[in-house]
Amino acid sequence: MIRDIRIVRHLELMRQESHEQSQLSHNMALSPPLLYTYRRCPYAMRARMALLLARVSFDAWEIVLRNKPEAMVLASPKATVPVLILADGAVLEQSWDIVKWALTQPGASAEAHACWHSALNSDSQQLLLLNDGAFKYHLDRYKYPERFETIEHPDRARQLKETHREQAVVSLLEPLEQRLRERPFLGGAQLGAADIGIFPFVRQFAAVDPAWFETLPLDHVKQWLAQCVGSALFAAAMQKLPSNIRTPYPVAGQ
Ligand SMILES: N[C@@H](CCC(=O)N[C@@H](CS)C(=O)NCC(=O)O)C(=O)O
């Protein structure tokens, strides 16, 4: 019942927004799914890549983190991105649910279905859990130690960063290295859903201190990361969009 009220209110807001934008966008407002997204969010990156890989046409709303759209918060009160609103008002508010939804659409290509299925083995599932759990925990503290502890002395910040980056390596990068010794991507020969789900976080980790990352004895991880980051899919998922407006997500070649 509460959920129904939320959906109705969300649809009302979408209508208001559309009306303000133009009558044309009003008419189109409920057709393609709407993805609330944030370009630099690794969870949103995995959702955008899955939607693009599955060739699902969607509209995107690039949010401003400090000023989230009311319609998004109403549809998903936990207020994190990504959130996908389907044409019938259904709300997907976890990135992995969006990945699954996109890649398992009945009309999606065999490539999209294979991408999803390649991540269903227990090794990939375990790596995804490590990524979203321990690795993300240590990544956040490596990047921003001051957000998690009042730091009086710069030595303490350095010590915390080093501890957490070491833990991040042990918790995910070493198991990843082991897996990638046997195959170029986590699910096999092609980029799969586990790669899409994990590499945006490893990319963030590498970017904190690229020179230090280069010194790690993790050649397979480095090669895998370079391939994922250099893929056309990632480039398509990282296009810059205007903020705070519903925009059809640009698809290459259109
Ligand atoms: N479990 C969620 C996590 C999503 C998440 O934490 N997204 C971050 C951005 S990377 C966010 O929206 N944070 C809210 C904020 O910073 O206010 C998912 O998989 O979608």
Task: Characterize the structure shown.
By secondary structure, the protein is α+β, with helices and mostly antiparallel strands. The protein is 58% helix and 6% strand. It has helices at 2-21, 23-28, 42-53, 70-75, 95-103, 110-117, 122-143, 154-180, 193-208, 210-214, 219-229, 232-237; strands spanning 34-37, 59-62, 83-85, 91-92, 246-248. A five-stranded mixed β-sheet has the order 4-3-1-2-5. The radius of gyration is 19 Å and the shape is globular. The N and C termini lie far apart (41 Å). Bound molecules: glutathione.
Topology of this protein?
Elements: H1 2-21, H2 23-28, E1 34-37, H3 42-53, E2 59-62, H4 70-75, E3 83-85, E4 91-92, H5 95-103, H6 110-117, H7 122-143, H8 154-180, H9 193-208, H10 210-214, H11 219-229, H12 232-237, E5 246-248
Parallel strand pairs: 1-2
Antiparallel strand pairs: 1-3, 2-5, 3-4
The structure holds glutathione.
Brief rundown of the structure:
This protein is an alpha+beta fold and 254 residues long.
